[in-house]
Amino acid sequence: MTAAEILKKYWGFDNFRPLQDEIVQSVLNGNDTLALLPTGGGKSICFQVPAMVMDGICIVVSPLIALMKDQVENLKAKGIEAIAIYAGMGKREIDILLDNCIYGKIKFLYLSPERLLAEKVRERISYMNVNLIAIDEAHCISQWGYDFRPPYLKIKDLREILPGKPILALTATATPFVREDIVQKLDMKHTQVFVKSFERRNLSYVVFDLEDKHKKLLEVARNVKGCGLVYVRNRRETTEIANFLRRNGIAADFYHAGIEKDLRFKKQEDWKKDIIRIMVATNAFGMGIDKPNVRFVIHLDLPDSLEAYYQEAGRAGRDEKRAFAVLLANKADQLILNGRYADSFPTVDEIKKTYHYLGSYFQLAYGAGEGLNFEFDLADFCKKFSLSVMKTLASLKFLEHDGYIALSENIFLQSRIMFTASHEDVYRFQIENSGYDPIIKTIQRSYGGAFDGYVKIKEADLSNRLKISYNDVITHLNRLQQLEVLSYLPQTDKPQLQFILPRADQMHLDIDVKYIKLRQEIQIEQIKAVLAYASAQTCRSQQLLHYFGETNADPCGFCDICLAERKLEELAELKDKIDFEIVTLLQSEHYGLDELVQGINTGNENDKIDRIRELLDAGKIKTDGKKYYL
């Protein structure tokens, strides 16, 4: 089938969006390709369609586990075989999934970059019939990018394992310098580069420098019809602002990564269905949420970088109708942003201490822990050792860069089971242990395929069907695992931390000091760019486009700066018209004030009187106290 036929059959579209067709053809021609498509530009189509045209499997590397899971579910719903491997999965589960990629009919294997660090994964990839390597959020490979992820640097190893296979690198936000860095870090050859303009003609960028942000927030929410997103700095603010909006009669809710999984999902769905009009959130909300009718995105704090701001603001107006990106910032925010910068850089000693505390927290002996995966509660860890959350997060990032650990974001993994004993052995076990017969039969009837691989289960469903307590279900499953009848992986909703290397003592911990200094320089430049955007008096859209390398863009005509300039131009035009009418009238005869005002057709009464006064002050017209004349 051709690319166009695949697009129609599986996605139902008659035509590709701008640049998609060119990117797909470049990939099909075997070229290494870099594609920059703004948020909502349809990046996934660019690798999914060509991978479906070609024989073999496409490997997709993505840092966003929630996004990977969504894409896998969407592909499966279309009848396309896809799987994802990420932190938190058991070794046996990963083994089975990798075997399915080698011997089965899997078309897409999604991997988190951390998984590429595992020797087992790389070895098994070498046996796969790979047709394409797709790198999503490719800016994460550049230390000059706004969201650098050290494990991304290992992606280049795939080139050695799979020589000659084309790479497609995709991102929504990258400056010209970062684009060059992506090409270099991925060792891309004769790269075809496709860049869709970052311009959003329907999006009005607005910045307000004011003290009372709450008042302006209400004003925007009441004057702009439709649903919106409000981004705030921390979890506490999400609750406070949502309550403030509700007190003022606006249907609002709050969202952050610390909320329990089912409730997070419900809030997300309520917002998607417009039950909730405004969602107040940290930047944990929004990735991969393709809601086209968002009319406004408001930032109550200065963002850390223009890349992050462009991506978050870009969630407004994906339906191409008029939408607003509003930044509420004042002088205090500038001090806070600079303060956050100072707080986010730990010393080498602080990084070493954080590593030492990790070993104590997980009770690891020196020389132990290599390859081990742990659920990681950052808040509990910081509380236990009296650490700053900001500095601890930064320390973990530096430890990740230096190859000691790998850290993933919050992820919900549903409980899974798989029978490890054969059909015959399970049947024999049921006869010999009749107490376990009901739960084994219920699993077999309810969850097909549990002998072939891991299947998702819900303990609450088993509890209802067996008429036993939830805790009894868990006890039975754990006991069946001990008896080697099945493998049971309980659900988790925590970030995952993996020790890449055995635990080292502080004396033998090698921290890359040059890299820390480089990150400091990069962050200073990013903060300067944000502060310049917030305070400049040139078109907001032009500023953003210039930052992303589009230096010849025209003023947008709709941002706060352009509208203010247009208002001044219109005012000047109005004055000129009134002046012309006054002079024309007074050329033929003298007029009293009331007669003169009535004789002018342009403007309102105040405009006319203001112009008469100004012309009088300038000596261009005169009066004898009763009449006006030239």
Number of domains: 5
What is the global morphology?
elongated
Number of strands: 21
CATH class of the largest domain, named Alpha Beta
Q: What is the terminal separation in angstroms?
A: 82 Å
Roughly what is the average pLDDT, rounded to an integer? 88
**From the helix content, strand content and strand pairing, which structural class follows?**
alpha/beta
The CATH architecture classification of the largest domain is 3-Layer(aba) Sandwich
Instruction: Extract low-pLDDT stretches.
Output: none
What value does the Rg take, in angstroms? Answer: 31 Å
- Major beta sheet summary: 7 strands, parallel
Strand order of the largest sheet: 3-4-2-5-6-1-7
Characterise this structure.
This protein has 630 residues and is of the alpha/beta class. Helix content is 46%, strand content 14%. Strand 5, helix 7 (157-161) and strand 6 (167-171) form a beta-alpha-beta unit. The chain is elongated and about 120 Å long.
Keywords:
Rossmann fold; Arc Repressor Mutant, subunit A; six-stranded parallel sheet; single chain; 5 domains; elongated; seven-stranded parallel sheet; 630 residues; alpha/beta
Show the helix and strand layout:
Layout: H1 3-11, H2 20-28, E1 33-36, H3 43-53, E2 57-61, H4 65-77, E3 82-85, H5 91-103, E4 108-111, H6 119-125, E5 130-135, H7 157-161, E6 167-171, H8 176-185, E7 192-195, E8 203-208, H9 213-223, E9 227-231, H10 235-247, E10 252-255, H11 261-272, E11 278-281, E12 294-299, H12 306-313, E13 323-328, H13 331-343, H14 348-361, E14 373-375, H15 378-384, H16 389-401, E15 405-407, E16 416-419, H17 423-432, H18 437-446, E17 455-456, H19 459-466, H20 470-482, E18 486-489, E19 496-499, H21 513-535, H22 540-547, H23 560-588, H24 593-599, H25 605-617, E20 622-623, E21 628-629
Parallel strand pairs: 1-6, 1-7, 2-4, 2-5, 3-4, 5-6, 8-13, 9-11, 9-12, 10-11, 12-13
Antiparallel strand pairs: 14-19, 15-19, 16-17, 16-18, 20-21
Helix pairs in contact: 2-3, 13-21, 14-16, 19-20, 23-25
